[in-house]
């Protein structure tokens, strides 16, 4: 929020609210549902829930694109993140950085790809790296996870 963009967060809350409504329809509660119990679940899914979730999921990618535009096209956001906190690829390796900071510096390494755990071996994805110049700035480090999000949506 300190970088000049409250609206994207609020739009994110709208989408979260839709998910919480699905959760509530299934269990009757919004947070601690006690839905999964020994031997199964407390009740069957409500009629129409899967259709509603599918409808939400099909439009969610568009919603993410709208939120991304709000962020990346915001001049305040750009002024506060471009050319700020530059970490070169060499620095990233020398400092043993990992995750977003490493990929934001342009190094295409993701432990989920090189040593998959959970179901990552079932997901075909390219490692999202920062593609802005200079690589390694704060703006670029934020771009890398946005590329990851596109894979999962």
TrEMBL record:
Alphabetized InterPro entries for the sequence: NADH_Q_OxRdtase_suD, NDH1_su_D/H, NiFe-Hase_large
Residue span, NADH-quinone oxidoreductase subunit D domain: 2-130
Pfam families the UniProt entry points to: Complex1_49kDa
GO molecular function: NAD binding; oxidoreductase activity, acting on NAD(P)H; quinone binding
GO biological process: mitochondrial electron transport, NADH to ubiquinone
A cellular component term, taken from the record's GO annotations: mitochondrion
Family: Belongs to the complex I 49 kDa subunit family.
Protein's name in the database: NADH-quinone oxidoreductase subunit D domain-containing protein
Lineage of the species this protein comes from: Eukaryota, Fungi, Dikarya, Basidiomycota, Agaricomycotina
């Amino acid at each position: 929020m300190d970088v000049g963009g409250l609206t994207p967060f609020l739009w994110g809350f709208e989408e979260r609210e839709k998910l919480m409504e699905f959760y509530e329809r299934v269990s009757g509660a919004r947070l601690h549902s006690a839905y999964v119990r020994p031997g199964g679940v407390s009740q069957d899914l409500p009629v129409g829930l899967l259709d509603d979730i599918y409808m939400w999921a099909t439009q969610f990618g568009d919603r993410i694109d709208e939120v991304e535009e709000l962020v990346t096209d915001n001049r305040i956001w750009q002024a506060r993140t471009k050319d700020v906190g530059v970490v070169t690829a060499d620095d990233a390796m020398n400092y043993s950085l990992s995750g977003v900071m490493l990929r934001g510096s342009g190094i295409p390494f993701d432990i989920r790809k090189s040593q998959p755990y959970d179901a990552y071996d079932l997901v075909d994805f390219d490692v999202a790296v920062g593609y802005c110049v200079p690589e390694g700035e704060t703006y670029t480090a934020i771009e890398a996870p946005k590329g990851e999000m596109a894979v999962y949506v």
